[in-house]
Amino acid sequence: MTTLTVYSDQDAGTVLARYDDAGQIREQLAALGIEFERWEASQPLAPDASPDDVMAAYAEQIEALKARYDFVTVDVVSMHPEHPAAAEARGKFLAEHTHDDFETRFFVDGEGAFYVHKDGKVFMLVCTRGDLINLPANTTHWFDMGPRPTFKAIRFFRIAEGWVGHFTGDPIAERFPKFEAAA
Fold it and tell me: Rounded to whole angstroms, what are the CA distances from 169 to 12, 95, 122, 141, 173?
């Protein structure tokens, strides 16, 4: 289930608010300049579906987003518990960072958690199948896929290089509940 949990950035032990209604989540994130939508992820995909299979299954949605935001690069990130780079990828995305570009993801399967650090708070959004999130450029955040990741997400970029993170060096992610604690 998609949830949004709000913490003070000074106290990871106290939950300030929790939302599980898509409309309330959209409203809370919109106040931060973050777009959140629930889409139909209705295309059947095999557990071992290739990136090309995913792109073909969601071609219509991909083209609509490319036209809406002038995205030039689209790819698929897919993780499963036995993926040889799962632990390394988790560690990379688990550090607080920003991007010069949007960070836009459409979850076509599985789940993962985005943590947005803004206005003295940490907003933990557990994304599940059908969630589309669009973080504006320069949004301070991190992503946790958990120790046994299971997700497929389509990623959209307005720069040809794709994912380029600028790490803040702040160890804040170490203080907040990990994805597996929230799932």
Answer: 18, 8, 16, 12, 10
Structure letter (DSSP) for residue 136:
P
DSSP symbol at 172:
G
Q: Which two tokens stand for residue 65?
A: 């987003």
CATH topology of domain 3-177: Jelly Rolls (2.60.120)
For the chain, the domains span: 3-177
- Between β-strands 131-135 and 35-38, what pairing exists: parallel, antiparallel or unpaired? antiparallel
E-assigned strand segments in the chain? 3-8, 11-19, 35-38, 73-79, 97-98, 103-118, 121-128, 131-135, 141-144, 150-157, 166-167
Burial of 44 (0-12, 13-18, 19+ CB in 10 A): exposed
Per-residue pLDDT tens for 129-172?
A: 999 999 998 999 999 999 999 999 999 988 766 666 788 889 99
Report d(CA 104, CA 121) in Å as an integer. 21
Q: Render pLDDT for 70-82 as a digit per residue (tens, 0 to 9).
A: 998 899 998 989 8
Give the Å distances, CA to CA, from 53 to 15, 36, 49, 66, 80: 40, 25, 6, 18, 16
Mean pLDDT of 8-32: 96
